[in-house]
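Example record for the data management plan.
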Amino acid sequence: MTPTTPKPTTDRRRVRFASSQTVHFAPEAVFPLLCPVLEYDWVPGWDCRLVYTESGVAEPGCVFQTEKPGDGGVDTWVVSRYEPAERITFVRVNPLRTIEYDIRLKPAGDGSTHLDWEQTITALDEAGDRHVEGLRQEDFTRMIDGLEAMLEHYLRTGEILETEH
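Corresponding structural encoding:
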């Protein structure tokens, strides 16, 4: 009999949220806007600091940072998956938690795009556990609904929709 190595365990909190939206423009028009640089064009109040990008926009390995009050400090984001017009995944980390945002785009057949947004949030310590326990699906859905309105407005008018999301 050989000794077995104990499997690592964790008691950190994790939640998963999902929401969908439809934007009345093709994936090729929508996908480029899922970018830290181009979000300045359509997300009110968006602010980030680019850390690394070879092209100047989102790409595999692009790194940027944001800071939102009450959300755990500076977030470092990394584009971990990049499939133009089909899928983009961001991994976002701060001292409280990690978030994986996975966004899949599918043509809807009428020139529209169906977007599936999934978010997995994992606490990193006890303070993160408390933070994660306070997160709710309805807040995520409301955020995605706001992003849908902003995307639709921007693609239709070329202007930012002045509203909070």
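Summary line stored alongside the record: The CA atoms of residues 18 and 74 lie 24 Å apart.
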